[in-house]
Amino acid sequence: MENLSQEQITEKAIIYSALMLHDDEIKVTSEKIQNVLKSANIQFESYMVDMYVRFFENNEIGNLISSGGSVGTVTTETVTADKEEEKEPEPEPEPESESESDDDMFGGGLFD
Predict the structure, then answer these.
(1) Region annotation Disordered: residue ranges (predicted)?
(2) Rounded mean pLDDT of the chain?
């Protein structure tokens, strides 16, 4: 682990913490992961823990294990995309009624 950056060490520690909690059938939460990291003296930023917890909420850990982790990776783009999906879709514009056709708007048709 000498060649790993502090961020990479933190990422691995978060993932291992989530796996430990999952193995003990404990719900993975930010608070529980932070407690594991603190007891292991791992330096971390809380936003990183939150980012991974959000990923694990959207992707069942058991499924990630059985799929070999091929579901994807966690990035800020992943979390942003998840937040965008949660927003309610904008209502579709209502179709124009027949009385508001182009002919009516301009005073009649071309050949009237």
Answers:
(1) 65-112
(2) 76
